[in-house]
Amino acid sequence: MNQLRKPPAYFKGLYEDSSFWSCCGLDGLSIVFDLPLDSIRSLTEEQKRAILHLLGYLASGEDCDLLARVVALQEVPAEERFHALVDLSFGLLPELGKDSST
Known about the structure:
This protein is mainly α. 64% of the residues lie in helices and 0% in strands. It has seven helices and no strands. Helix 1 (8-15) packs across helix 5 (45-60) and helix 5 (45-60) packs across helix 7.
């Protein structure tokens, strides 16, 4: 899975494949983003949901800049990519961790 260029169709196909998610659960994020399984398992549920939301953005194909940023991360070591994806996913969801009534 060490593809350096992943088109939106790649992300959309996996994002919409319910059998993939039924089989893998959120551990499937390690496959999608080519990360060690232990790194995904170390995340909180909130962090996993944020990365899944990032995948949804990528699957939509509407944000070419975001796609380019994620694709560029494929060229960096897995640990650096992991931290960058977590940061990027939370950057997309600034409301996470805040009281929803505010």
